[in-house]
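User: quick one - fold this with adenosine-5'-triphosphate bound?
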Amino acid sequence: MKVLVLGAGQLARMMALASKPLNIEVRAYDVGSDQVVDPLSPSVTFGDLDAGIAFADSITAEFEHISHEVLDRCEDSGKLFPSSQSIKTGGDRRLEKSLLEQANVKNATHHVVATKAEFDNALKHLKLPLILKSALAGYDGKGQWRLKDISQADAIWKEVDTFIKEDTSAQQQAVVIEQMVPFDREVSMVGVRDKNGETKSYPLTENHHTNGVLSVSLATGAHANLQAQASEAFDKIANALDYVGVLAIEFFQVGESLLVNEIAPRVHNSGHWTQQGADTCQFENHMRAVSQLPLGSTALVRPTAMINVLGTDSVPNSILSIPSVTMHWYGKSKRAGRKMGHINVSGSDRVELLQRLQQVVSLLPENDFPEVNDYVSQLK
Ligand code: ATP
Ligand code: MG
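Assistant: Sure. Structure tokens for the protein plus adenosine-5'-triphosphate:
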């Protein structure tokens, strides 16, 4: 089996690492350089996109912000999984919101806005506080504004209007305005669907964000009461898209109910814990799905947490002396805030996991891991 991944970052790299034992050969298409590369040694190149399409039995993607021209060329080959429509939906909040409405999945009350009249109308119908998000090209909290008091409306509209007008996307830019959800907690779930329509869901993951970027994920098998709701939302969304592969869903938990925040049509940062905590990790299951192999079990085998390494290329080696700690570097050069790697920590139960997690974070420098110690300290 040969798979081409659109995108040559850490997700393609981890797909390639998980594929080796299955004898699946992976190449990655770097959209920036327009070159097909080895995802484990990106300086090794194999030609342009056409060469990559010809090489592959299946084509998949590691991110959703890919030009429609590239997606359409891959779709025309008949090899693209998930479909271009699924990937486009993940890359455009307007399509994403209408999918959620059509699939009858609960999400935040919202309006789509591109003009001042639409903005004024949205303010009439929505309850403050609000969050405005760019329809296209948003990630890690970028392209977002928060409107807490009506006195901010004019100034925010000025910024949004300029943002929309100056946007250079091939599609028309807009913003989605949503009501802020007073959530108790943010959780996410990764699931996988194969070409026959079989689905499997991983246990829900609790997520902590620092400055709008995921910093810690925790999967302990808690929240059994919410798991059925999350799996049902996954099935509705994945079936509506006739989805093939791994898909992630971010939720807001409000009391005992889950609202979908957004979806990602790919393996996801909040699913990295599955490498040490699940029977089959998300990367392997994604490759199995797109290669028409039977899906692996998604059962939790041991409670596991993931800590993102952001903007630094070293952590104290002493963390590796703690049992069940694994280090995953992405081989990238250092840049402020960049996702450089992650640390997985496991325990035989939640208590042991939290003890080890506390040991690990006590060794991590606060400068490089802001707030992580505070978050972990309050976990029970
Ligand atoms: P990422 O790529 O990191 O997932 P993103 O840029 O795609 O982020 P969102 O996930 O939509 O954007 O928003 C980032 C964060 O902002 C959320 O994780 C949540 O903490 C907060 N947020 C977003 N929308 C809402 C909302 N409607 N109510 C309350 N908080 C929200
Ligand atoms: Mg998000």
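One thing worth noting: Residues 108, 131, 133, 138-142, 178, 180-181, 186, 209, 212-214, 250, 261-262 surround adenosine-5'-triphosphate (ligand 1) (CB under 6 Å).
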